[in-house]
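Quick one from the shared queue. A colleague (R.T.) flagged Histone-lysine N-methyltransferase, H3 lysine-9 specific SUVH6-like as missing a structural entry in our internal table.

Convert sequence to structure tokens.
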Amino acid sequence: PGIEVGDEFQYRMELNILGMHKPSQGGIDYMKHGDDIVATSIVASGGYDDSLDNSDILIYTGQGGNVMQAKKSGQEYKPPKDQKLVQGNLALKNSSIKQTPVRVIRGNQKAALESSGGDKKGAHYVYDGLYLVEEYWRELGSHGKFVFKFKLRRMPGQPELSWKVVKNSKNLKYREGLCKLDISEGK
């Protein structure tokens, strides 16, 4: 309650605190629905090979398989592997069957980096509204392993969010009284 289409957030932890998206890193949040799990929200930020340009249809790549892991010094490299239909991917599949709405939060890594002077700590997230998962499929990803793709369509009757405008935004807007930069007040 109280969150509207177009509301902006600087940090993923804000989404967690508000109950919009619990995982601090994972892109798919889900809950139990009867004997199954269904997706409650996704964060689409372009980290995978997602199609984010259409404001009403989103092609979202599933999670898992070490698809995005880059070799970092001091860490063991794990090669990519096929994604499995478990956890968040299974929840999105079940949402497709049960037609449960999924909250979509769009992230803009480019705008976040530009507005923060290259600091990856702050990101820019915008609540885009409720979507339904229309279909899903498995395909060979750009890294040579299988990934799951999910086609989500925005539910009608919601306020329009011009994603192209948000995507090109370089400055976060803070709303007085709703966003406090230092909750410890200097302590």
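The CA atoms of residues 6 and 161 lie 6 Å apart.
The longest helix spans residues 87-98.
Added to the table.
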